[in-house]
Amino acid sequence: MPLPPTLASQSSDITPLATSEDSPCFGDIFDAGLKVLNASCPFQKASLTLSGVDAYLEGRLGLPSSLPLSKEEVLARIPVKPARPTHPRAPSLPSSVPAGPPMSGKKKGIVASIHGIAHAESWAIDLMWDLLLRFAYDVQAAEPSFWDDFLRIVREEAEHFLSWTRRLEEGYGIRYGTLPVHDALWECAEASKDDVMARFSLINLLQEARGLDTSEITLQRLLRAGDSVSAETLQKNAKEEEGHVAAGIKWFCYVKDKRLLQGSCESNFHRYVKERYRGRIAPPFNVEARRRAGMCEAWYFPLVTPSKEGGKGGGNESR
Ligand SMILES: [Fe+2]
Ligand SMILES: [Fe+2]
What we know:
Shape: globular
Oligomer: single chain
Structural class: mainly alpha
Largest sheet: none
Distance between the termini: 26 Å
Mean pLDDT: 84
Bound molecules: fe (ii) ion
């Protein structure tokens, strides 16, 4: 779809939301999330997310006043898988953006990294909305601030997506969607669709924490390549991602206590990962960023698996 005027503008900040007059019509914040999950265009997902969350924050949109009574009724409303572009190489894109110019191999590597991050951020929008809506019944009744935490997070994911797609266009003349992408992040959502603690484990505590590790590696590449603008964007977004991991820990431990589960939060997390995650967990870790997010080594060191060759590096989480 064409970018709405507010998103097409090339300002350095994410443009504030449209006014209520031209905002999409949502029944409540649950309905806003459903519209995001059912939208196939990644730019529309971001735009709807900003509109819905800001309307909520400004008091123009409320929490769902009539959540269905049963968990089954809630789940029946949520798409099995979020709508995505029909062709992964060609999501709807602003027509004004030119195809990319020829570039060196080193530059191509930077573009591929930024494109990959933008793609992960587009999936993050879907993942956070799916988490909110799918598990609202489990958590919301006991603790409404669950909504506040994850609405803040999903808004940040939308801003991250837009910041990276804008950077691709402004810095490199490249459209998001012109490079190959994968849907591996959804595999973790699929493997955790029945249990909110599993979802916190695989998405917030595993994939988002892995994002903290890879951000540091990408940052060094960007600085070596002299792309200080992208480096600045990455540092800002990575700081916010620490808050996403922290929220995952907070709510994982909250639900664990509510369920009166035995053992530590860390040991319960280890159990979920071993039961539901097939990838390797390996260094390098961004220990400092993980610590700032409240994730000390006890959370992830016991999960480290050596490679078949006996090496230590190369964790293969997909974000
Ligand atoms: Fe993000
Ligand atoms: Fe995140």
